[in-house]
Amino acid sequence: MALTWYSEVPGGGLLRIRVQPRAGRTEIAGVHGDRLRIRIAAPPVDGAANREVVRFLARRLRLPRSAVEIRSGHKGRTKSIWVRGLDARAAASALAPEG
């Protein structure tokens, strides 16, 4: 299975995600086009959803939060996330859709 939502970049990997804030729980919900769909329990108010995205991805990837950075999409649902040291194998195993 090709990871349409992942690209290798210098120093790590770039994740293309689509966020659904105010979900019942925070989880990976599948793939939406060329983006990984993530449901976030936090509301999109005062950066709460962005903080939850970073926390969730860092926990799933077993990395410190400082290794996960939102590069674009701070105010939208579609985001690009740079993860230091992430490769395709780690992305595929840690971020496989649940369910």
Care to describe what's here?
The protein has 99 residues and is α+β, with helices and mostly antiparallel strands. 21% of the residues lie in helices and 36% in strands. Strands 1, 2, 3, 4, 5 and 6 form a six-stranded mixed β-sheet that branches. Strand 3 (27-32) and strand 4 (35-39) form a beta hairpin. It starts with 5 loop residues before the first strand and ends in a 5-residue tail after the last helix.
Structure summary:
With 99 residues, the protein is of the alpha+beta class. Helix content is 21%, strand content 36%.
* Count of discrete domains: 1
- Would you identify the regions where 5 or more consecutive residues have pLDDT less than 50? none
CATH H-level superfamily title: YggU-like
Rounded radius of gyration (Å): 12 Å
How is the main sheet built? Answer: 6 strands, mixed
Calculate the mean pLDDT score and round it. Answer: 94
User: Approximately how much beta-strand content do the residues carry?
Assistant: 35-45%
Number of beta strands? 6
Broad structural category: alpha+beta
Distance between the termini: 17 Å
Q: How does CATH name the architecture?
A: 2-Layer Sandwich
Number of helices: 2
Helix content: 10-25%
CATH class: Alpha Beta
CATH topology: Conserved Hypothetical Protein Mth637, Chain: A
Principal-axis shape: globular
SSE order in H/E notation? EEEEHEEH
